[in-house]
Amino acid sequence: MAFLDESGVEANRDMVLLAIWELRGDWKLAFLGFKWGEKRKCCDEEACSLMVWVLGSHRKFSTAWCLIRDLNQALMDTRRAMLIMIDRPKNYLKRLLLSAYDIIYASANHPSKAIKTFQIMEKFRLSPDQEAFHVLLNALCKNGNMEEAEEFMLVSKKFFPLEVEGFNIVLDGWCNISVDVYQAKRVWREMSKYCITPDATSYTHMISCYSKVGILFDSLRLYDEMKKRDWVPGLKVYNSLIYVLTRENCYKEALKVLDKGKEMGLQPDAATYNSMIGPLCESKKLEEARQILSAMINDNLSPTVETYHAFLQSADSTGTLEVLDRMKKANLGPNGNTFLIILEKFFILEQPQKALEIWNEMKNHGVVPESTHYTVMVKGLAICGLFTKAKELLAEMTSNGFSEDPKLKKLLKKPIGGSVKGKRRVRQLKQAKRINLKQDRIAKRQLSFLKFPSLEIPVLKAKQALNRCAIFATCAE
């Protein structure tokens, strides 16, 4: 501090904010810059909120709370800092730029602490309002704590009457965070129980959930119901329908929905085309996928990371390297997730040598292996019988500071894939897993039709069903 005082640098508000932001990786230095600005009376509520965010990011919650108390004693507005302690840190910069009122830091994976923060706002002469309530629900659901969010919403209904916005936040968590269709249906029924009428956002979340798990009929049924209730489907709804139709081998019908969206004045985005490219690549329909990619480029939309990842799923070794080069030229990576996709793909195809080639290729693209990469490699090599190389990578993993997984050591002690018999057993297990997954998928679809036994729609023959289905007639006309 004395060095800063003697430096002759004139402190101002913007300089203090910049110093805290640039030093955010070291909370002690950032806090020193904050105290220096405070001494020069250059710290306003925004600087204090930013400092609280830095402290929270480093899990220095006690120091953050001390700073909030100092703010309160100085009769400064502590509302922003309190919301920071509720919501997540990664959104701070975005919200700081968008709003002078809402900044965020979340007690990630600490739902009870986030709720407690909300409850003690009154001690700082702040009345928790609907906005702060929704910030809390959002923070809980984004971290996968939908049950806690729903419970808190229900027990707080005397202070915050139940409304569709709160249910939508919980519904979004089940539909798009955990993709749990059973829980999503339950929340949908709960809304009816409390006399809450679903709005356009509610339908959008449910259609998204049904599409992600491949339930075509219910996706189209809710789309039709949504229009009958005079809710205008947005682009997200059309993207969901395009995805589920393409996934269920209704490519032509998906193109009709794409055209329908354009007729409604909705401009397709990258997610729209990715909704078709992903399922097409997954089902090895590369020609159709390339046609959609061309249409995407013709609409002046650039391929995204998700676009390239979709093509990587079905590319051979040569094609994989070509996709990686294109990603690099487009400044879209490749990143760690890209190589995880490739490594897992080659091990599923029982091509460990290709996986080793890609492992070496990672360094050429400047991607540093993480714990998940080592785990995939060691496990895959061991299953394919390459124990020596697997042990080398396990040793490299521990030498790089990653904790050793006991399951990997156990796997290396028991050669399950080293012999011909072992490899045959691995293939049998994979085949059985694929069959079980397929049966589960069929069962889920059939269960979704139990409410409508009179319709007798042959789910597995999606194209024939769509031709007879009045719901799709309204969608495609």
Tag the structure with descriptive keywords:
single chain, 477 residues, mainly alpha, 28 helices
Structure description:
With 477 residues, this protein is mostly helical. 69% of the residues lie in helices and 0% in strands. The chain has 28 helices and no strands. It has helices at 2-6, 13-22, 27-39, 45-57, 61-73, 79-86, 92-98, 111-119, 130-142, 146-155, 164-177, 181-193, 200-212, 216-228, 235-247, 251-263, 270-282, 286-298, 305-314, 317-329, 336-348, 352-364, 371-383, 387-399, 406-413, 420-447, 462-468, 470-476. The longest helix is centred in the C-terminal third of the chain and has 28 residues, at 420-447. The protein is globular, with a radius of gyration of 27 Å.
Q: What is the rounded Rg?
A: 27 Å
Low-confidence stretches: 88-109, 120-127, 416-421, 443-477
What pattern of helices and strands is seen along the backbone?
HHHHHHHHHHHHHHHHHHHHHHHHHHHH
Count of individual helical segments: 28
Helical amount: 55-70%
Distance between the termini: 72 Å
Structural class from helices and strands?
mainly alpha
Care to count the β-strands?
A: 0
Main sheet: strands, sense, barrel: none
Sequence-ordered SSE layout with sheet pairings:
Elements: H1 2-6, H2 13-22, H3 27-39, H4 45-57, H5 61-73, H6 79-86, H7 92-98, H8 111-119, H9 130-142, H10 146-155, H11 164-177, H12 181-193, H13 200-212, H14 216-228, H15 235-247, H16 251-263, H17 270-282, H18 286-298, H19 305-314, H20 317-329, H21 336-348, H22 352-364, H23 371-383, H24 387-399, H25 406-413, H26 420-447, H27 462-468, H28 470-476
Helix pairs in contact: 2-3, 2-4, 3-4, 4-5, 4-6, 6-8, 8-9, 9-10, 9-11, 10-11, 11-12, 11-13, 12-13, 13-14, 13-15, 14-15, 14-28, 15-16, 15-17, 17-18, 17-19, 19-20, 21-22, 21-23, 23-24
